[in-house]
Amino acid sequence: MINEKEIRTLKGFTLQEIKEYFVSEGEPAxxxxxxxxxxxxxxxxxxxxMSNLPKALxxxxxxxxxIDTLSYSTSEHSPSTRTKKYVFETSDGSKIESVVIPEKKxxxxxxxxxxxxxxxxxxxxxxxxxxxxxxxxxxIFDQFKLASKxxxxxxxxxxxxxxxxEPLLNFNETVKSLKIFAEExxxxxxxKKITVSTAGIAPKIKELEETGLKVxxxxxxxxxxxxxxNKIMPINKKYSLKENIEALKSYAAKTNTRITFEYVxxxxxxxxxxxxxxxxxxxxxxxxxLNIIPFNSLEHMNPSGLAGQLRSTPxxxxxxxxxxxxxxxxxxxxxxxxxxxxxxxxxxxAYPKIE
Length: 355
Fold this sequence. Notes:
355 residues, alpha/beta, DNA polymerase, domain 1, TIM Barrel, 2 domains, 10-stranded mixed β-sheet, two-stranded antiparallel ribbon, 12 strands, globular
């Protein structure tokens, strides 16, 4: 239930939470639906514009709550791919990045769930910038709102929770944002067009399964070998690949969805013949598909240690790797790099100006 003494923004609350507040204030529940639609369907951030509400209620709401959460800071546009990277600012001055990726049959928005990331994956710029805080459900949603209003080349058709941060380490706010997107009153996007990515937080995968949301799940795999994942993804030391695979199998079965495995190609680390065999074995045990992603440079972060030593597998070897997997009847997508000219490609999101 909304506690107005603690919460001053209405943006980020689910339909059920808003209904509880209105009922507690002696207002009919249908008023909550009206406010919800204004915020998430019509993307209005001013109570005075909610014309079907009584004036007294609009005044009361404006004296109690505010709605907007993010503000536009700056953006960059790739002339070659039409990819657009946004920098948005939270109310406390933190910066996050979101990216619109246009393709032939869809336009995807990649959104962030945290300011920075605590996981320190060696191939990811966000991990190199460190972690500051979780985003609220309202801040997660408003990336969609602001990008939708600005990106005028095409309509956003898909959302991927693959920007800055680990969504399942901001579990409650991530789930609340998904519940908001799931409502019919939230126009412009369907839960069927949303994918949540995780580096592997096995207990939270189980919790997400239990929400009944049936959102598509992408798993940052990058190696089938525990010792390699330990080096490039330190979170694997806490939640092993074996533990995560068991959680993913359960999730796929209970939600009747197919898991997407993400696989960044790292020269000499995960591009060997034994990696092909291990991938084929793993993917034969679970409904899944594989996204192969060329490693994108982290030079804009001046990385040191292992992160500074990583190189992308040459494209010729990536193609051979992909073909051999397809010969084993594995569904593989070789992702084209988009936005690397503006540091907006997969693994490149970071805002270094963070204290």
